[in-house]
Amino acid sequence: MNLIIQSPNDISPTHLDRLLSLSLASGIEQVGTHAYRLSDSKPHDGVAMFCYENQLDYGFVRSGVHLSNFGLVVMDMDSTLITIECIDEIADMQGLKPMVSEITEAAMRGEIDFAESLRRRVALLKGLEEGALQRVYDERLQLNSGAEIMLNELKKHGIKTMLVSGGFTYFTERLKARLGLDIVHANTLEISDGKLTGQILGDIVDAQAKANWLNHARTEFDLHPEQVIAIGDGANDLKMMAEAGTSIAYHAKPIVRTQASFALNFVGLNGVVNLFA
């Protein structure tokens, strides 16, 4: 195994020396900005605690596994690819953000069924002008740190990208065009006479739908599960992540971190590239 250590900032030599000692690694090399590979490492319980205390991300990766081994990366949108929860920001246009955010958080922690939580939140948006969606996209939607670095590297390796979201097609379709994503799936808000009706058209993209779309794409591209990476942050991503050979919890809820192959708690999405450098 190789131990990958990374941070948003410089990593002190003292910290690297400690990790070399804990992991009994045979050597160390830099693999990215603020990222290092400790070769031939042995898993040690102390690594996780030391890294968390010092705001370092870590991952034990099998030797010989590189980005080129993968063929598909599937990711969540809200709070994963982008910094915001779109529905919360839409609700803010109605002065309802606290109420909607509370439901969003409960759903992400797995305390409320996602489909039911989405219907409840969307119903609160009834009567909102469609232009509010464009304002959220223009004024509030930002990519998470490292997103474009990650996507550019995936393209260099010919890896397909899929955005599958419990959010809305209004945003996923714009991100697809902007970022050159291969596939996007999300929910469609019903709009009538330029206003949201408080309803969703068609089937809701919930946890099972996310998993189904991942498997559909994997089959379409003739890939094995081991060739698929899934990235998410909330409970609604767990079924999707379970279908991928490699799952990455990105700045995620505790329930997601404990079930993922890797957790990135501090670095940006470029950390995905560093894991498999």
Describe the protein in words.
With 277 residues, the chain is an alpha/beta fold. The protein is built from twelve helices and eleven strands. Strands 8-7-6-5-9-10-11 form a seven-stranded mixed β-sheet, with helices on both faces. A four-stranded antiparallel β-sheet has the order 2-3-1-4. It is elongated and about 65 Å long.
User: How many distinct helices?
Assistant: 12
Regions with little confidence, pLDDT below 50 for 5+ residues: none
What is the overall shape?
A: elongated
> How do the SSEs run, as a string of H and E?
EHEEHEEHHHHHEHEEHEHEHEH
At the first level of CATH, the class of the domain at 1-64 is Alpha Beta
Largest sheet entry: 7 strands, mixed
Q: Tally of extended strands?
A: 11
- Mean pLDDT over the full residue set: 96
Structural class: alpha/beta
N-to-C CA distance: 14 Å
Into which percentage range does the β-strand content fall? Answer: 15-25%
What is the second-level CATH architecture of the domain at 1-64?
A: 2-Layer Sandwich
Strand order, sheet with most strands = 8-7-6-5-9-10-11
Measured as a percent range, the helix fraction is: 25-40%
Annotated CATH topology of the domain at 1-64: Alpha-Beta Plaits
Gyration radius (Cα, Å) is 20 Å
